[in-house]
Amino acid sequence: MEENALRRDNVDWAAVRRAAFTRAGSAQRPVDTYPAIETAVGALGDGHSRFFDPKDVNELEGGAAVRRPVEGRALPGRVGYLSLPRVQGSGEVYQQYVRESRAAVAKANRPTACGWVIDLRRNGGGNMWPMLAVAGPVLGDGNVGGFVDAKGKKSVWSIEKGSPRLDGESKGWGASAPVGAGSAPVAVLTSRSTASSGEAVAVAFRGRPDTRSFGQDTTGVPTGNQAHRLSDGALLNLTEVKDTDRTGRAYDAPIPPDEVVADNLDREGSYQDPVLEAATEWLSKQPACT
Q: Which is deepest, 56, 223, 230, 263, by most CB within 10 Å?
């Protein structure tokens, strides 16, 4: 933690170490150290680092998938709508997520959409790379963001043939043809529930031409975690980097939308959606959709 944590310069490590070793002083087994580790994680103050015991790790990696249904549809005015939910699980879960989501994009693109709504309001995070594999054809090829650590070391997210890469290295998803030549206007919807990797997708659209965001501030953890496996299978998921957009701006706090619109997400099934209405009204005025 002291070497890699994003906010390590703001932590009194001598005090953290004293508290941790006091709590773990009589430990005989790895499990006896868990309270001390959790106390140290709490002292980081980044709101994103987490400790998982082996049971939690098994549930996280063993198929206990966390995701909402993918939704893609064509809206009036030749606007494509994609609700991009969170996803967390195993490799097969991610493969299914990408297959379903890309099919949803194709469905929303009939007939050819003049503009897009990317709805991240219920995206609470998980693995960002399957999400970018779906959003990639809408984002368009090129550099779309990156990470920066506490030492200023940077890495780059990019899209190539609709598929995400980190510092030029493929993340393992196949190519997907761009929609709207990757340059169609896009409205991004966010809420206070948009968190972590959901915020990373929002960041990937920041600075993109003909793109505007609507809704409310995000949760405020647009940061990246690195998994550190411990000896008994427990996992320390440590926040080590900030997200950066394509202009180089870094984020580590709630991200405000370009246009604040009161939401009604708590009214599930409501026929009124003021955020979506504001987004589609803006899209209808863009040259591509007039």
A: 223
pLDDT for res 58: 83
Q: pLDDT averaged over the chain?
A: 93
Q: Does 197 map to a domain?
A: yes
The verdict on residue 240 lying in a domain is yes
pLDDT above 50: residue 74: yes
> Phi/psi class of residue 216: alpha, beta or left (left: φ > 0; alpha: ψ in -120 to 50)?
beta
Check residue 269 and give its pLDDT: 47
Report the pLDDT value the prediction gives residue 259, as an integer from 0 to 100.
98
Q: What is the CATH number of the domain that holds 98?
A: 3.90.226.10
**Across 129-153, average pLDDT:** 96
102-139 CB burial, b ≥16 within 10 A, e <16: bebbebbbeeebbbbbbbbbbbbbbbbbbbbbbbbbbb
Q: What residues make up the domain containing 198?
A: 66-289
Neighbours of 10 (CB within 10 A): 12
Indicate yes or no: pTM above 0.90: yes
Q: What is the pLDDT of residue 267?
A: 56
Q: Is 56 inside any structural domain?
A: no
The full DSSP string for 134-166 is HHHHHH-SEEEEEEEETT--EEEEEEETTEEEE
Distances (CA, A) of 141 to 15, 108, 160: 47, 20, 5
Structural domain count, the chain: 1
**Phi, psi of 95, deg, nearest 5:** -60, -45
Place of tokens 């998994």: 227
Q: Fill in the DSSP letter of residue 212.
A: E
Instruction: Mark out the alpha helices in the chain (DSSP H runs).
Output: 13-23, 34-43, 54-61, 91-108, 128-139, 197-205, 274-284
Over residues 83-102, the mean pLDDT reads 89
11 located within any domain: no
Cβ–Cβ under 8 Å, residues 135 and 102: no
